Amino acid sequence: MYYPDEVIEEVREKNDIVDVVSEYVKLTRKGSSYFGLCPFHNEKSPSFSVSPGKQMYYCFGCGAGGNVYTFLMEYENYTFQEALKTLADRVNYPLPELEYSKEAKQEADLKATLFEINKLAGKYYYYMLKSEHGQRAMEYLKNRQLTDETILKFGLGYSGKNGYDLYNYLKSKGYKDDILKQTGLFNVDSKGFYDRFRNRVMYPIMNTNNKVIGFGGRVMGEGEPKYLNSPETKLFDKSRNLYGLNIARSSRKPNMIICEGYMDVISLHQAGFNQAVASLGTALTVNQAAILKRYTDNILLTYDSDGAGVKAALRAIPILKEAGLSIKVINMRPHKDPDEFIKALGCEEFQKRIDGATNSFMYEVAIMEKDHDLKDPDSKTAFFKEVAGKLTEFTEELERNNYIEAIANKYMISYESLRNLVNARGMQLGIEASRRPVRQKNKDNIINKEDALVQAQRVLLTWLIEDTGLFKKLENVLSPKDFIEPLYNKVAVLLYEQYAGGKVSPAAIVNHFDSEEEHKEVAALFNTPLRSNLNDNDREKALNETLQRVKNNSFDYRKEHALSVNELQEVMKEQAQFQKMHIYLN
Known about the structure:
By secondary structure, the protein is of the alpha+beta class. It is 51% helix and 11% strand. It is built from 26 helices and 16 strands. Strands 1-2-3-4-5 form a five-stranded antiparallel β-sheet. Strands 13-12-14-15-16 form a five-stranded mixed β-sheet, sandwiched between helices. A four-stranded antiparallel β-sheet has the order 6-9-10-11. Helix 13 (307-322) links the parallel strand 14 (298-301) and strand 15. It starts with a helix and ends in a 7-residue tail after the last helix.
C-alpha cells in the first residue's frame, strides 16, 4: 500500500515548499529564507521560517518542522497517503496504481462504501428536515435560534418516525444488507432491519477530513435515550473523535473550547467561537486529549455548571494536564451551559468570561472549598490539609511555590505556614515536596559535556548541509559512524548516501522518519544556527573544534564498546593519528 520512494520524491520536488506554505501562511522574504507567523502556535512576531534551498520549514518558537509532506500532515491532519495525493493532484502528477493485498483492498473498499452510505444518509436526513415531515424538528432548531446557514454548515437533519424510511431509501440505491448492517444506522431483529434513529434531530459527526463517520440524534418529544449516538463501526470510534473538530482545527484561535453537547458547539460557532468542540456522549478520553494537543496548547472547559458538569470537569482536567495542555474553566453562572449563556447574555459577555476564565487548579480548590465550612476551625484545617495534599502534585519547586503563594493570598493564610504544611503533607504521602535539585559538580559537568557533544554533532551535520564541499575535504576523516546519537547517525547515513548519489536533499531525508517528534528533531537539526559573521580563519578554527569534539566522542564510544584488545588498539591508533592532523577546511 506504499508508493515507491522515487514517486514520493518526485512529487515532493514538483511542489516547492514556499509555494505550498504560502497558500496557508503569509510569508515575507528575509535573506535566503521566508518568514511568517507560525500556523502551529499563537505568536505575534514571526518565527516560522521556510527555506527554499533546503525545501523545509522550521519554527524557532515551537519547534515544528519538516518538509512539504509534514506541513500538510500537521496543518490539515492528513495521513501521509492523503498528503501525497493532495500534492500530486496539485501539480497534476498521475500517481501509479497501488498493488493492494486482497485483504487490504477489501478493507479499503468497505470503508469507501461506508463513507458513501453515511454521506447519502446525511443528505437524506437534511432532505427530511426540509420536508413537511421535518416541520417539528425545524421548529425545534429555529426555537434554538439557529440560522439556515448554521443548519446547512453542520448538515443538521431529521430522521422520520416510520422506522424504515432510510433503510428503504438505501436499498433502492442498491446497497446490500450485509453492508448496511455494518453502518451502525440500523438495528436488526427477527423481523429484519429497522432504522436505529427514529423521530430525532440528526447531527452528522465528521472526521477532520469532513467525511461523515457517524451520527448523533436528539429525540423529538418523549422517548429514551434523549440523545443517541452511532455505535462503534469501521469508521466511528467515539473515543478518538470530537464533534466540531473538522471546523475548529482551522480556527487559528489561541485555544479550544470543550463543551458537553452538540448544541453548545453549534451555538458557540454561530456566535463566532469556532474553536468549540465536544466529546461524543462519553467522558473525555486520553485519545481525545492527545488529538487536541495537535492543534493547541490551551483548553477552555465549558461543561455544564450543574453537579454532573462539575464532575466531568474534574475528571477531564488531569487527563488534559497529562497530555501537556494548559487548562482554564469558564464560569457560566447563572446559566447552565454555553448555549443558554449565549442566548441570554450574548457573545461579548461570553468573551469576557473567556478572558476571566479560572486556572484549573484554582477551580479544583474552589470546588474543594464547597465541602468545608471555613468558619469552623476544624473544617478549615481539614480544607488546608486537603489543599496541601493537592499542592504536592506539582513536582517543580517554582511552580509549586507559585501556587502556594496564590492560595495563601486568596485565603489570607501565611505563605510560610502553608508551605510548611505542604512539606509535611508531602512527607506523609511519601513525597519530599520541598526537595531542591541536588547540585553535584561532577554530575553537572557530565550533563554539560553530554549537551555540548550532542550540539557538536548537530552543528557538524548542519555545516555539511550548508557547505557540501566539506564532504570531499573530510572524506578520509569523518564518516556516519562518528555521529553517536541514534537519530543523528541515521541522518548522517542518509546524508552520505545522498552525497554519493550526487544530490544532497535535506527535505528527502525527513521522509525516512515516521513520527512527528522525529520530524521536528530532524528539522531542528538542519536549522541549527551557524555563525555567519566569521572570517575565514575563525570559521576554520570553529569547524576544527567542532570536528575534534565529534571525533573524540566517537573514539571514546568505540573504545568503550570494543570487543577485543586488537579492536581497542586499532581505535587508539586512529585517535593518535587524528590528533596530529590539522584539517584545512577553507
